[in-house]
């Protein structure tokens, strides 16, 4: 992005107020990978003192949105990105700060080719949620689409 255009993290925080509500930190956001961090905040703890499942879901969903913005920013004039469905599994107890790392499940070229062909492409984004010791506490897959604008 140029100096006059907002970066991916700024775009995410400007368009997704919930990310700001949870004080999510954009660690990295590119077309290839997005990493967001949920700081340890007592206001967002669950009954065992770790981050609430809803906060971790929002963290992961926000990371997926960041990579979608990064990968498809040049398509946003003609298509709207929308989450279609999500599947999350909580694997281990999360305590303290957690980080979500998102990667695309299809290449940008494949998705854009479908959009160019007049289709409404769908593509998965895979997210790993980890605690500070590196243990994976959750895994999520969100299927996104690029809905052509009329």
TrEMBL record:
InterPro entries: DUF4442, HotDog_dom_sf
Pfam families for the chain: DUF4442
Superkingdom in the source lineage: Bacteria
Protein name (database record): DUF4442 domain-containing protein
Gene3D superfamilies according to UniProt: Hotdog Thioesterase
